């Protein structure tokens, strides 16, 4: 049984293309899977699961973070990883605003933006993109993302408590 070491290098050739295709399909499902009748616009399940109170935005953020993790394993640059996490943070923060946040979530499409960034990276010749995953940097990025998600959850709980106490007196 083989194990991947923490300092493993990114997958090569066919494995990278296979991973990219899988991530592109996931992004499509999250951001563009459902056509809106009578228009050329499409939405995905990300804004729909974001409507679920309590865990919808967290679930969408977790799946988006998976795309970033796989991109890191494929050897994308730190700058690209920061851009990808920023896209997720904007999506997560905007999704917390009732109604308006859902409209932003439908239009922002963080996963599609992240797949475009990954696709741009993959066009780099393989010899210059064969980097090891910087797990410490990736952990730091995910730590920031987790802090944003926890902060949003804490603010939501405080607002709900305040609203409940205002209603019940």
From TrEMBL:
Protein name listed in UniProt: DUF4112 domain-containing protein
InterPro entries referenced in this protein's UniProt entry, alphabetically: DUF4112 (IPR025187)
Transmembrane domains' residue ranges: 135-164
Keywords: Membrane, Transmembrane, Transmembrane helix
Pfam families in the cross-refs: DUF4112
């Amino acid at each position: 049984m083989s194990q991947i070491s923490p300092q493993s290098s990114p997958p090569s050739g066919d494995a990278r293309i296979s991973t990219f295709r899988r991530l592109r399909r996931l992004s499509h499902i999250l951001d563009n899977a459902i056509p809106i009748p009578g228009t050329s616009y499409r939405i995905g399940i990300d804004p729909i699961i974001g409507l679920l109170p309590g865990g919808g935005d967290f679930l969408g953020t977790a799946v988006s973070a998976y795309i970033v993790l796989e991109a890191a394993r494929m050897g994308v640059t730190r700058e690209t990883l920061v851009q990808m996490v920023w896209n997720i943070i904007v999506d997560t923060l905007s999704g917390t605003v009732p109604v308006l946040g859902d409209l932003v979530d439908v239009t922002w499409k963080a996963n599609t933006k992240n797949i475009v960034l990954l696709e741009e990276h993959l066009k780099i010749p393989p010899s210059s993109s064969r980097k090891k995953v910087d797990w410490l940097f990736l952990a730091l990025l995910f730590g920031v993302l987790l802090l944003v998600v926890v902060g949003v959850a804490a603010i939501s709980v405080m607002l709900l408590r305040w609203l409940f106490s205002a209603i019940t007196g």
